[in-house]
Amino acid sequence: MSKHIVLGVTGSIAAYKAAELVRLIKTSGNEVSVVMTKSATKFVAPLTFKTLSQNDVAVEMFDDSMVWNPVHINMADKADIIVIAPCTANVLAKTAHGLADDLLSATVLATKVPVLIAPAMNDRMWSNAATQANVETVRQRGIEVMEAGEGDLACGYCGSGRMPEPKDIMKAIAKILDVEMDS
Ligand SMILES: Cc1cc2nc3c(=O)[nH]c(=O)nc-3n(C[C@H](O)[C@H](O)[C@H](O)COP(=O)(O)O)c2cc1C
After folding, report:
1. Is residue 46 within 8 Å of 56, Cβ to Cβ?
2. Which pairing describes strands 57-58 and 31-36: parallel, antiparallel, or unpaired?
3. E strands of the chain, at which residues?
4. Ligand 1: which atom is nearest the Cα of residue 40?
5. Measured on CA atoms in the order 100, 103, 105, 110, is the torsion positive or negative?
6. Which residue has the higher pLDDT, 128 or 157?
7. pTM exceeds 0.70 for this model
8. CATH, domain range 4-177
9. Domain segments of the chain: what residues?
10. Rounded to 5 degrees, what are φ and ψ at 57?
11. pLDDT per residue over 22-41, tens digit each?
12. Coil, helix or strand at residue 73
């Protein structure tokens, strides 16, 4: 049976890679609904995700055009898994501290399903003690945080902080849901 993946996309230069992730999810025969932070829309237009996912893209918390119930509750209810890819240092911190001041963080707080985080940030942001403490906190609560990749970063530095590759995120989703997800 096909799964419904709610994909959170945040304000990282790696947001373009989330488009490939949406494509892989769709070609694997599963459904995907994208929730973007406002910052994410500076990097990739919602139309890209709408077209690739064949679903509406949610950005606004206070949007009464889509469904009768609050969008974050609707998203949390229909998900089999919530994947945040790329996940900024900011959204990671908000998740660790239980903040709910935008649609994505409220959805994460409202869910009972597994949450998978694929971080993406500058190497110093990633290695910062605050970020690492946030990683530890969310892991202790059962959220899976993938290891950031090593290599050239879009900010011009080289180090740890690259978003894991979409195909590896697909493998992590399949493992958590205990299903085959060939695309
Ligand atoms: C060009 C550019 C690239 C950025 N890339 C990242 C990134 O990869 N990771 C990150 O944590 N923040 C990055 N930022 C900073 C975030 O966009 C900023 O913290 C923003 O408030 C995050 O909002 P959000 O977490 O609600 O999406 C970048 C900013 C700019 C201008």
Report:
1. no
2. parallel
3. 4-9, 31-36, 57-58, 81-87, 115-119, 144-145, 149-152, 158-162
4. 27
5. positive
6. 128
7. yes
8. 3.40.50.1950
9. 4-177
10. -105, 130
11. 999 999 999 999 999 999 99
12. helix
